[in-house]
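Workshop exercise sheet. Pairs work together: one partner reads the sequence aloud, the other fills in the structure field after running the prediction. Swap roles for the next sheet.
Pair: D.N. / O.F.
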Amino acid sequence: MGFERVKEEIKRHKLLYSIFIGDFNARIANFDSNIDSVISSNNRQRKSKDKTTNTRVKDLIKTATDHMYTVTNGNFQSDLEGEFTFNNNNGSSVMD
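Structure field:
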């Protein structure tokens, strides 16, 4: 489901509490949505071992911020360092 489809579903269903699970193929490095610091389990900036961003970073962060969603990778007690979520012979990444 792409960003536009997510936005349509939010508006259509007036979703107040939602969890979107999946992979938006957005590499956002250490970027946070504004809401992340409020929701974070330890009140700190989100971390990610992936220091690379791609063209989807703005869409994901804007959508998350506009709708008060948080990126969980690297933001909760179970993943304080933002561990890599993908590894292969070409390298590693955190896909949010």
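Discussion prompt: Residues 11 and 42 are 31 Å apart (CA to CA). What would you look at next?
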